[in-house]
Amino acid sequence: MKESNIKIVDGFVWLLVTERAEEVYFSDLFEIYALYPDGSESLVVSLEDLHTCLEFGLEIGVEVGYINT
């Protein structure tokens, strides 16, 4: 079964781009965020930062927005 590309945390939707994070980072079209297991997130500000996040197994996401639940 394919893993979902969408993650919802407290009504906020993220598009997961973990497997293509480096490509998205270099595209400069979107800011990407490291998504932590506790529901928090942090902006990925450098390629080194991205590699560290991936080494720790964090999901990488792009902001989509809030949904009404």
What does this structure look like?
The protein is an alpha+beta fold. It has one domain. It is built from two helices and five strands, in the order E-E-H-E-E-H-E. A five-stranded antiparallel beta sheet has the order 1-2-5-3-4, covered by helices on one side. It is globular and about 35 Å long. The model has no long low-confidence stretch (mean pLDDT 92).
Beta-strand content: 25-35%
Helix content: 10-25%
Please summarize the sheet with the most strands.
5 strands, antiparallel
Could you say which overall geometry the principal axes of the C-alpha atoms support? globular
The total strand number stands at: 5
Rg from alpha-carbon coordinates: 12 Å
Main-sheet strand order equals 1-2-5-3-4
Order of helices and strands: EEHEEHE
Number of helices: 2
Structure classification: alpha+beta
Give unreliable regions as ranges: none
Mean pLDDT: 92
State the end-to-end CA separation: 26 Å
Number of domains: 1
Summarize the structure.
The protein has 69 residues and is of the alpha+beta class. The protein contains 2 helices and 5 strands.
Q: What descriptive keywords fit this protein?
A:
69 residues, alpha+beta, 5-stranded antiparallel beta sheet
Question: What layout of secondary structure does this protein have?
Answer:
Layout: E1 6-9, E2 12-16, H1 21-27, E3 33-35, E4 41-43, H2 47-55, E5 59-66
